[in-house]
Amino acid sequence: MTRSIKLTFAVITLILLNYHNSFSQGCCSGGSGSPIAGGTSLGVLQKGQVELGANYQYSNSNKFFSGDKDTTSLIKSLSSNYLYLRLGYGITEKLTLSIEGGYFFDKTLVGLHPNDPSVIDNTKKSSGISDLIIFPRYDVYDKTDENKHTEITLGLGLKIPLGKHYDSIVSFNDPTIPLKISTILPPTVQLTTGAYDIILYGFIFREYKHAKFRIFANGLYVKKGWNSLGEKFGDYASIGLFAGKTFFKKLGITLQVKGEWIDVLQLVPYATPSLMSVDPPATGSRKISFVPQINYSYKSFTVFVLSDFPLYQYMNGQQIGSQNLITAGITYRFMPAKYLWKETKKVQQ
Questions:
Q1: pLDDT tens digit string along 162-182?
Q2: Strand runs (DSSP E) across the chain, as ranges?
């Protein structure tokens, strides 16, 4: 298998697994662990190679946990429809730079009684642009022999918040006075945490060429920053173990076991839990999930679909957990210099 095909397969394996696949940090506190769709950007591109990616994710949950036990749901549902875009470029054979970002078509929290006219803020909703991520990755080790290929890649990224993290909703309206009161939406419905985050990433890959079989692993740590509301969402860490095999040259199957940890949310003294709709002790979580994926490659295009199945979830306090998560996407890779060279030769002739 060529380096290009291997990297195409590898990069789509983790695209868009958990931008917010864990709803943890509370029903009304919220905030995802990883700001990256997929948890990571994986290996490097070839020198001069361009990667374009578009990925759609749907998630929905009404499943609550206290510790690792099911408990009574406090809302009807929490859902989102999310688009994640990626532009990557191979600066050298070892260094790749990606610019990535996302857009929420909607993030919606529906209360237990959405049709009750006396509760005007029962459905909380937002939509718009989320974060921008600048993510360079460097191939620190790459060795190939007749049957095996081994690669180690490290990355250091920056998440820049672009969307609102302090959007509000009308919670009381009396036109006879008149009086209108607005409250800040819970962070679970905000488009971003509003903080600059540092992203640390590692990836190790081993391919057995003759068997068309791959095993690989990745680790991700997101150091969260403070936002303007005096909130610091819990740091995020994840480890993924993968096994994948190619069938009929174009069809790939990958199985992943993934572990995640989210630290508790912190507030500065003036940011009271009642003001921010946040209960810090009821934030933070641990999760283990199984993620099967199928993908199909045709020339420079790869399409894929995957789903996240939680095997174990532990929530501090009482929080909403992961339930339904499905992702589909497409990537396209090409060498623009080759096309430009061909066009130049045609003009000269």
A1: 999 888 776 666 677 777 677
A2: 50-61, 64-67, 69-71, 77-90, 95-110, 123-144, 148-161, 168-174, 179-184, 197-208, 213-223, 231-232, 236-247, 251-262, 266-267, 285-298, 301-307, 309-320, 324-334
